[in-house]
Amino acid sequence: MGREIVIGLVGKPSSGKSTTLNSLTDANAKVGAFPFTTIDPNKATGYLEIDCACKRFNKQDKCKPNYGYCRNGKRGVPMMLLDVAGLVPNAHLGRGLGNKFLGDLTEADCLIHIVDASGTTDAEGKATRGYDPLNDIEWLQNEIFEWIMGNLKERWGSVVRKHVGTKQTTLETLRQQLGGYVANTKLIAQALDIIPNLPPLQDWDDEMLGNVVRAFMQVKFPTVLSLNKMDHPDSDKNVSKIILKYPKSKAVLCSSITEVFLRKLVAQNFIKYDPGTEFVDTKEDLPDDASLKPLDEKLKNRIENIRDLVLYRFGSTGVVQLLQAAAELLQLVPVYPVRNIHNFTGNSGDFVFRDCLLVKKGTPVISVARKIMGDVTIAAIEGVGGIRIGEEDTVDVGKNDILSFKLVPGSRN
What we know:
Blueprint: E1 6-10, H1 17-25, E2 43-51, H2 53-56, E3 69-71, E4 74-83, H3 98-105, E5 110-116, H4 134-154, H5 156-166, H6 170-178, H7 185-194, H8 206-220, E6 223-228, H9 235-245, E7 250-253, H10 256-267, E8 272-273, E9 280-281, H11 297-314, H12 319-329, E10 332-337, E11 357-360, H13 365-373, E12 378-382, E13 402-407
Parallel strand pairs: 1-4, 1-5, 5-6, 6-7, 10-13
Antiparallel strand pairs: 2-4, 3-4, 8-9, 10-11, 12-13
Helix pairs in contact: 1-10, 4-8, 6-7, 7-8
Keywords: Nucleotide-binding
Pfam families: MMR_HSR1 (PF01926), YGR210-like_G4 (PF08438)
Domain OBG-type G: 5-274
């Protein structure tokens, strides 16, 4: 199946990381078995919400995924989440769980940095008022930078000597030095392309080496900023400062504790709630719904406050949008492999679009086939309507995203 996409969650103590993780991993409904063969203690399954292909063909009633869920055309596609622990100042020097923290980061394809936008917790996560959360963002980037830069500088003299002596390309030398961060040649080449007029590697000074490290961080650790506790009165000014300082960063306003609370009320049949939206309905709103229980005054007031301070003001709690933002950063496209390209069913039964996987936009369809089935011989690839698709044709949103693979008889072991 190839390597799964991994989203790393980072955040200092009391920033809301655990609450965010809980809200991302609770699908609030029975879901299919997990697609991941091993889940380590610090890994969990989250659900990326997308518009399912079943909606395109008005087959919502027949959609029953093998993994995740589909509710009226809203599909939850499983994603691997990594809870990166040990976020303390000077982690790159080995403080706290620093070595484990930085080592875990290498597994991640994208980071979600949970930032306490209220400024009510200091750098160590202790209660305070007026703390500037910009410090947390700058600190995380600096820790990663110092870690990679320190590792390179420690042996840079011998790296340059070998580079000159063996007449390697800059790309090959850097692949050997940065491959340990789970970075392939293509990713390192993307980083080098960011830097204009790159001089020969043997002529790099500390400043140029630093520029290369920052370019590498940009492609290796793309980061979504989760500006948490957005409903706190001090958050507005801090959010403005952060967005002004990092205008190109993907930032999502969040209240993860509100999301967890709403989902708890759903489970207790007090409300109907559509995650990722502003819509919450109570017994007062839906008096004919026999499944809903009436609210007491205390719960009524809490719901009204949530509507006013979070849902109506921001449009949602922001939690569903976090994984969507990560998927956008990584340019992920949902692809649906089906056995029957005409009715979109799988191996058995009449359920449609049983499987969905996430691949990078622009991936050749033959690579999708390899990811699903391994090294087999493909006789033909068909798209919607039975149209033949070339092996090197690429996938995009709504293009070559529903595929049927015909194998040469006897090619599968």
